[in-house]
Amino acid sequence: MIRCLIVDDEHLAREAIKAYIEKIPELALVGECENALQAMAFLRKENIDLIFLDIEMPEIDGISFLKYVKNNPRVVFTTAYRNYAIEAFDLDVIDYLLKPISFERFVLAINKFYERKNSNVSHNETNKTNRNFINIKANRKTYKIDIVNIDYIESLKDYVKIICADESIITHDSLSNFETILKEYGFIRTHNSFLVAIDKIKSFNSESVFLKNKELPISRTYKKFVLSHLER
After folding, report:
1. Angle (deg, nearest 10), helices 103-117 and 175-182
2. HTH LytTR-type domain location, by residue (predicted)?
């Protein structure tokens, strides 16, 4: 059972999410909070698996709240505003739902939660050699991939393709999960479909990044974020 908390200052918004939660047997609504301060107090008493969190709230907004919370549960942002999307995904949220939220879109967010929970990728740091690896489950095997050998990762709907210097591996997973693991190792999201190793980028312009033998697009959504990092 997935223990859920709704944090939203709008009563109607809370009721809508509550109704969706009640339709899915695997979800259990444990609490509702009208603001971030109530949520902080609630989390000190209860263990939560998933928070449906509004962004624009009085006193403390959802993004600030998430930065304050230690050992925070998984989060799905629910908001009427598009302009927080990049900052939100920088905080490793499961999904970003725009109000009014359809039930179909809500179910997709829950599926993403399960994808993250049941991921086929794990991180393994080998202290003796000071090398970092990820273990990829594919083709009934586990592949041990040195992170420094990864050029980029491409999303293929329900799968991802990991492109290395000497091999490519396809596994059932999400690009957002790889982004969570690899962003601290110098990987950057340039597009909904691409996660790229910054040190493999040879050149770039406002539309694309260029690797040794590959050109990858920069989407409008990620352009400002990508260029601000590459122009440092």
Report:
1. 50
2. 134-232
- Asked if residue 121 has pLDDT above 70, the reply is no
User: In this structure, which long-range contacts are made by residues 13-17, counting pairs with CB atoms below 8 Å and at least 24 apart in sequence?
Assistant: 13/54, 13/78, 13/99, 16/100, 16/101, 17/52, 17/78, 17/101, 17/106
With 0.70 as the threshold, say if the pTM is over it: no
The pair of three-digit structure tokens given for residue 180, joined into one six-digit string? 């969570």
Query: What is the arrangement of strands in the sheet containing 150-156, beginning at the earlier edge strand?
Result: 168-171, 159-164, 150-156, 194-197, 187-191
pLDDT tens-place string over residues 40-65: 999 999 999 999 999 999 989 998 99
Cα torsion for 97, 100, 102, 103, to the nearest 10°?
Answer: 80
Instruction: State which fold the 2-117 domain adopts.
Output: Rossmann fold (3.40.50)
**Cα(60)–Cα(231) distance, rounded to whole angstroms?**
32
CATH superfamily of 121-230: LytTr DNA-binding domain (2.40.50.1020)
Cα end-to-end distance, the chain, whole Å? 45
What residue segments make up the domains of the chain, in order of their start?
Answer: 2-117, 121-230
Query: In sequence order, which residues have a C-beta less than 8 Å from that of residue 96 and are 6 or more positions away?
Result: 76, 77, 79, 84, 85, 88, 89
Place of tokens 């009640």: 22
